[in-house]
Amino acid sequence: MCSYVSPESLMPPLELISCAAIARERCGTEVQLIDAIAEGLNEDEVITRIEAYKPDIITSLTGFECYEEDILALKKITSRITQTDFILFGHYATHFPAETLIHSGADYIILGEPELVFESLLSALIAKNEKALETVEGIAYLQGGELIKRGKPTRINDPNDLPIPAYDLLPKGDKYYEPLLPVPYGMIQTVRGCPYACNYCVKSYGTKLSQLTTERVIAEIKIMKELHGIKSLRFIDDTFTINKRRVIELCKAIIEEKLDIKWVCLSRADNLDDELLTWMKKAGCHRIYFGMESGSQRMLDIYKKNVKVTEALTVFHLCKKHNIETAVFFMIGHPDETEKDFEDTLKFAREAKLSYVSIAPLTPYPGTPLFDELSATINFNIFPYKNEWKNTTMVTAFKERKQRFYKGFYLRPGYLLSSSRIIANNFWEVAYMGFGLLRYIILKKPFLSAELKDPEPQLKRTPMPETV
User: Fold this and answer.
1) What is the C-alpha to C-alpha distance for residues 406 and 332, in angstroms, rounded to an integer?
2) What is the pLDDT at residue 249?
3) Which end of the chain is more exposed for a tag (fewer CB within 10 A), N or C?
């Protein structure tokens, strides 16, 4: 399972098609992609596909909350497919390479950002060159039952030097989607890294920024339109709007090239202004996702968010002025969070006039400062996977507050009225999603193209591994 699956969305596995482009263009190999979720394949069907293809090497990404499922699925594959080298990467694989190797049956772990290490490792494996293999930095493997780690996770300084991801390998049709966006749907990452210091966040590519040029971004969008006819697009950058000048330049290029595409992105409430939102709207921006986390200034300070509640309210009202939807993520459940903090968050969500909200329990992950800070209060085990609070009453408290939050936000007369307008403006997208949900309820078939794996509505891809 390569991407985060929820009833509302399924995103293409960018990391895998980026590695596929490396394999094909730099190592001269034949490549096939299996996106089992998008294609609705179970484990046995995946194994049948692999046996028919007879690959020399298989590469897979491992996730977070689905980590144990991933490892068990991989173990089933490695026990059946024995004449193949298996390469894995991902956050937990990087932080727990020995456990991942032992329980999955994989041969190699790539530590951190994968592409360049993958190129070196793949070249050595193809050539069956033991000496070259011994020089590959940024990998881990088992030798005589002992873990060998060679090198550390490193950053790719310029992603423009990487080949364009193999978009042609993605399955055709409406396999990928996101709420209330027209399909076909695509995704692109234009910036890697995030310089902010939020203590709960697993940083996708560390803190140093590296970015694609405007020309490269436009070229990739054109390829997706040509290959898949995409009508909507997600900029998956951790913070798409971090460089105002660059975003305006890109918006102007989208307009000049007449790409005519509806797009969404992730941002922060402290790096948007009227000028930037004006250009974004002109270029087709339909929705902005924000990880606001809390409407309590005290909690924001605890999370090292470096955002002011008053500033955030101004930005959200600006988005509404420009008719750009706001989808905002909140999380509750910090041991120090009070009832007043929760009430402040609900009050904030109402006052901000947000389009959509999602609330999730706080989950501290290994590799983050917050996990280290709260480790004494957490039961964590990598396999079998467990990441939960020792105080079990926190789960009950979260469920109660979640219900109150959704009722208090969504069941207001003013919001219900605005929702009717949203539905009217997105009639065909709503109908498409409604058909998929009805199909799932009646036939127990996958929701649209994806299996319904998680009952909690979240609109995130599984983050990439944290790197130095």
Assistant:
1) 13
2) 98
3) C
